[in-house]
Amino acid sequence: MNEEPKDPLLLDHDADGIKELDNNLPSWWVWLFYICIAIAFAYMGYYHVLKMGPLQAEEYAAEAKAGDAIKNAALARFESELASLKPSADPQVLTNGLQTYQTLCAPCHRPDGGGLVGPNLCDTYWIHGSNYVDTVKIIVTGVPEKGMLTWRGVLKPSEIQAVASYIYTLRGSNPVDPKPSEDKAPAPVQMDFE
Predict the structure, then answer these.
(1) Domains and CATH numbers, the chain
(2) pTM here?
(3) How buried is 158 (Cβ within 10 angstroms: 0-12 exposed, 13-18 middle, 19+ buried)?
């Protein structure tokens, strides 16, 4: 009987007729695997055991702190220049202000500025002052007792100035069915008890 020559890669393992090959991995792959293991141990030792380098959470906190410092400095500079601000007439600034207004302000003041939960921005009476600087201050500080959020730290100074400029253009417009002006006391309700 002639036996088939045995394949040197074929092992003596047999499971339901399936034979196992003994393929050795290429040496470059094995060395790459060992290098990865060495790097993992070095990483663990450097960052977790010896604590010589900052972890990702610490790096994020440091970068967030630096970013907050930059943002706070820009806001402080912006707020110190408030008295000299004038509304912009630049069409691009007004378009940006409209987009911000539609996203953040319209839910309370209506898209046309006629007022909903928030006051009417189109009439001549403004609760917190009617000049441009007053509008900017209200956007920056908000009116928490009335439910208006502060946008300090949320909007950039340029976005605040753009939305304030856009709101300033709403004054004197005539939206359909606006909220009544808040400078007038509501008319008393007459009750008939007969």
Answers:
(1) 10-49 (no CATH), 78-170 (1.10.760.10)
(2) 0.62
(3) middle
